């Protein structure tokens, strides 16, 4: 049995502070769970001159070599964020025989498969619960409570910024531009908001979830990704009239031995649990063959929730260190064919700006019908409502299920119609 | 390593059928997880002449001795329900050195502490994920993902029948009597609905959750329990006007080293995640010092979800059997003082039928104020709305937080007022 479990931190800041504070506050309880007390050894920072409350200045260093040279360190915890040098440091820590706990979605999305293999090859573990969904439990339910199920789909609201924005657009009727400015003022959105609003952050996280839920390796650039910047107040209003709510869904599912992974603004039926996840909350829904659907909802970010997940991983691997247990057998991630969006099948919402003249609906319906897309409902909105020019209108169509390729082909025809002024949003529908 | 893991079932029926079917369908996957194949050994039924699809007739028996005499059985799975003889059979199985997996909320609520001790004394495990929340993962998130947290409260919607009824009363404006009849027709409610509508089922489950979340032993009769049979359509309508939804909440929390455990119809703020859990869905929300609130939502009953939880337990203990691992050290459940409702503190909603005459509100406000209960809002509804006699009215008051004892004392005074015709519901408010 190890007498203490030495932990070094890569990164300080808010999350590091919360981790250190929790270990100081709940040290006895953690020691009882782990079988040995946790001890902070080294803290890697960029600026060693800055004061870090709760951290002994002698532990602070700006050199990764210093951390790795510390023989008392058995677990390295990384929450620097960003791809490099975080990835290189994680690799070095694993090669030096240290267990690693990381909150880094970008590194795990891009390099998870090879780093997990490297960890196994070095007889250590790499844990990453905090890299997705903040404080929401994901790993243990999958590895224990849902183990009897074949998990076939994961659907998640996994970016707090965009969910906050879409919720405000829905509940307050705010415009995209106004609510983005407000989110930036409140600190929910970055000055450059593209990682959030273009779905880049969500794409990292769904790639990580593909590994967790299916043990399948999906690269972030294999995720079919669309952001929310094209969503208008009218899309939100039309969706509401149809009984739907617009959410940025990150989704992965196994279909016929292949995988689909998407991040897309989606019309979600208003009675669905995911439709009711509002504000900065996140949620992850799993579908299993026995259990049906279960959803986990909670804070997707924040120092306390992130520290909660990091410490869960630390306590887990700490038990191994205390008892000198070796990692379990390792199953390398599978690589499945990633289905391109043309092969994805879904119902869809189409918003099309048209000249308000006879025959236009017939032409659009014909273009869709020729590709086998069958229409479920049609609504027409006049300039009075749309704010468009006189003599124009907006058609909102919903369809039955059809493959992406059929929609694309039909839209190519519609785009050429003299009466079609604008193909607005084409969004999948769920529930 | 064991070559096969022998499982005997106490009870057949739908859930047993689903468990057997899953083992047949996914046997290879389960064997890979466990380290040895699962094998059904004996199936205990009341009526041995009935056909059981998927079960070999030679495995069927109506004698528990027959099951316990089978040396190939290392795990006994119980889903007979009810207190006896299930409790006695579980005890006998544990004493005979068999691991037990049970879905029995009544037995675990009433006898959990002593049976868990008995299991430990016999070197075996007793697992019961399926006894609460159907397919919703509860055990692994608590024992792994939330382990770094001090869990201080559990709040749950944990009875599908009453949630279905309250949802219909809210969304369709149905009366309690009409919706109860409909629920009985649909099979969601029993001919004698008292176990559901009086909160007895929910009290069993919150008692089980006290063990899981806090390792505290709470007997079902220590749960302060109220059902939904006194909830009127007007309560639902008044709550809606105040921005609340009426839900039957099962709740437990640790306060000052003591425990509160309640099942009560509660006004839940409409924006709260629990307020949006509708129909037969269940949800369990945990509050931890680091993570804040996380909520797990899913099917609370049904053969697939229940089989999912039972099999999660079977695979977990099966891994121990395959590797000949001994159970971990056992921490006996704590017994804390259970706070009586007079000591519980909450905001409250009060509906009081009165004579519509000057001074009545003043007298009620004085009675509350004298006990230190401060009023937050007052609404008055006339007979036109309430359907009451001319010259009467209904007062709906909401209060700031106060102890149960203060409400009781004030209500004793109000009850004696000449102008007070009826103390309607007094319900706690959350969120």
Task: Describe the protein in words.
Two copies of one chain form a homodimer. With 431 residues, chain A is an alpha/beta fold. Chain A folds into three domains: 5-135 and 303-323, Rossmann fold (3-Layer(aba) Sandwich); 139-297, Dihydrodipicolinate Reductase, domain 2 (2-Layer Sandwich); 343-430, Alpha-Beta Plaits, CATH 3.30.70.260. The first copy, chain A, has 15 helices and 17 strands. Chain A has helices at residues 13-25, 27-34, 64-69, 86-95, 105-121, 139-145, 160-172, 176-186, 194-197, 200-214, 233-242, 303-323, 360-370, 383-386, 404-415; strands at 5-10, 38-44, 60-61, 75-78, 99-102, 126-127, 151-157, 224-225, 244-255, 258-269, 281-288, 292-299, 345-355, 375-381, 392-399, 402-403, 420-430. In chain A, the strands form two sheets. In chain A, strands 7, 8, 9, 10, 11, 12, 13, 14, 15, 16 and 17 form an eleven-stranded mixed β-sheet that branches. The longest helix of chain A is centred in the C-terminal third of the chain and has 21 residues, at 303-323. The model of chain A has no long low-confidence stretch (mean pLDDT 94). At the A-B interface, helix 2, helix 6, strand 12 and helix 12 of A face helix 2, helix 6, strand 12 and helix 12 of B. Strand 12 (292-299) of chain A pairs antiparallel with strand 12 of chain B, so a sheet runs across the interface.
